[in-house]
Amino acid sequence: MEIKETPDLLVLRARKRLRIPDIKQAALEYAPQFEKQIVESGLKVAGPWLFISHNLPRDGKTLFDWEICRPVEKPERYDGAMELHHLEPIIVASKMHQGSLRTLFTQGYAPLVAEIEMSRHIFSGESREVYHGWNGPGASYQRVEIQFGLAR
Q1: Which of 12, 54, 60, 124 has the most crowded Cβ, counting Cβ within 10 A?
Q2: What pLDDT is recorded for position 137?
Q3: Right CATH number for 2-151 from 3.40.50.2300, 3.20.20.60, 3.40.640.10, 3.20.80.10?
Q4: How do residues 56-106 score in pLDDT, each as one tens digit?
Q5: Are 40 and 100 within 8 A, CB to CB?
Q6: DSSP letters spanning the chain
Q7: Cα dist. 54→13, 66, 80, 81, 109 in Å?
Q8: In terms of pLDDT, which residue wins out, 152 or 8?
Q9: What is the pLDDT of the chain when averaged over all its residues?
Q10: Residues 6 or more apart whose Cβ sits within 8 Å of residue 111
Q11: Is the pLDDT of residue 140 over 80?
């Protein structure tokens, strides 16, 4: 586990209330919209895909607030249809998960949650997934940084 501050980011953002099993489909639906908006607006991508969860549940049935974001460089002017949003830096407990998305919760989230609980840090309610090495849905190898926001 690494404790660090996230970068100050400008992102294109879409938000949705969903369940954990719905994330894959939502990401597949939103990704082309982001790509289209980036091209149409002449934006430059400035980082990997970012999923943000608010009060992520520990089960697949509970609804929660989710955001899909794509960091972009600050444009001189923007009048696109998608929301351009500023993400303030936050302090997080972070761990890199390398492997299949099928093991993201058992081998990524669960050990990090246990480590945070043992350290006595307090969860802020925000968590993030940063897709550093995205190889497409169903690929056996991904590099996903899991981040849990910490209360100050």
Answers
A1: 12
A2: 62
A3: 3.20.80.10
A4: 998 999 999 999 999 999 999 999 999 999 999 999 999 999 988 888 888
A5: no
A6: -EEEEPPPEEEEEEEEEE-GGGHHHHHHHHHHHHHHHHHHHT--B-S--EEEEES--SSSSS-EEEEEEEEBPPPS----SSEEEEEPP-EEEEEEEEE-GGGIIIIIIHHHHHHHHHHT--EEEEEEEEEEE---TT-S-EEEEEEEEE--
A7: 14, 6, 26, 24, 15
A8: 8
A9: 93
A10: 95
A11: no
Tokens 């953002």, residue located? 13
List own/partner pairs for 111-115 with CB under 8 A and 24 or more apart.
112/1, 112/146, 112/148, 113/148, 115/1
> Looking at the predicted structure, is the pLDDT value of residue 138 above 70?
no
Is the whole-model pTM more than 0.90?
Answer: yes
Q: Say how many Å lie between the first and final Cα of the chain, rounded.
A: 17
